[in-house]
Amino acid sequence: MKSEAYLFAGVAAFFLLSGVAYAWFAREPAGMTALGISFLMASVIAFFSMTNYRRKGARPEDRSDAEIQERSGRVDFFPPHSRHPVVTAVGATVVANGIIYGDWLVLIGLGILGAGVFGMAFQYNARSDG
Predict the structure, then answer these.
(1) Residue 102: left (phi > 0), alpha (psi -120 to 50), or beta?
(2) Could you tell me the end-to-end alpha-carbon distance of the chain, in angstroms, rounded to an integer?
(3) pTM of the model as a whole
(4) Residue 12 in contact with residue 50, Cβ under 8 Å?
(5) pLDDT tens track for 81-105
(6) pLDDT by residue (tens digit) across 37-77?
(7) Are 46 and 16 in contact (CB under 8 A)?
């Protein structure tokens, strides 16, 4: 993760320098905002990668003397089926229609959307990885 942290820190530095130059020469708010948000997003990924590296240490991919067997094992849990993505999509659709037709529909859509997102986040929360 250390190399990824340095990579995204470089990307963040590029966006920062580009944003400063753009602000100096163009003084256009939409471009400055886009470059500023790009800098912040790259900084968050760099921070996450460096924090993850400091907590867990080097991965087998980061070492030149690593063996393939060091990364083998269970990859992750993949759920077989879920209704929550459909509920989330319906909620997003209702919110989008509510922006056009009325605030009351936005509130209903946010409720449906929240139920779908929380359902996806906590669907397998009580599952044991035995």
Answers:
(1) left
(2) 28
(3) 0.54
(4) no
(5) 889 999 999 999 999 999 999 899 9
(6) 999 999 999 999 899 888 877 777 777 787 777 777 776 76
(7) no
